[in-house]
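Troubleshooting: if your tokenizer reports a length mismatch, compare your output against this known-good record of 129 residues.
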Amino acid sequence: MKLMRLMIAALCLFPTMTIAFDFRFPVTEMAAHERDHTWNLTSDQQYAQITLDCMSFLNELQFYQWDSKGELELKEGLFLYHDECQAIAERIYQDVSLAGKPQCLQIQKSPLWIDFSDLEKDCTLDQRK
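Known-good structure output:
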């Protein structure tokens, strides 16, 4: 919740601020992982698997692709504070799992900025740099 309050405060203070996101992708499903407090996020973008891990010592959003041997390979990971990880999980659970409404997850790495949008146009193309 602290993350959401910071985002709302920033939007109130800087309503015309634009952000160049490092990751922008739609989340259409959230499935339980074999570990507690870890989920596989389904997206129709370039990643074979996206895992939101809020259980490990280091919370992380992990992006996987298939390698030449047909095995999943971690391509990039984004470390999160525990409250950031929980806020992402809660938002996706409420909007995607319960309400059935896909969300566009938008992330800037430095400084860390996490945003959501339910507008399809925001996620039509992956804007990863």
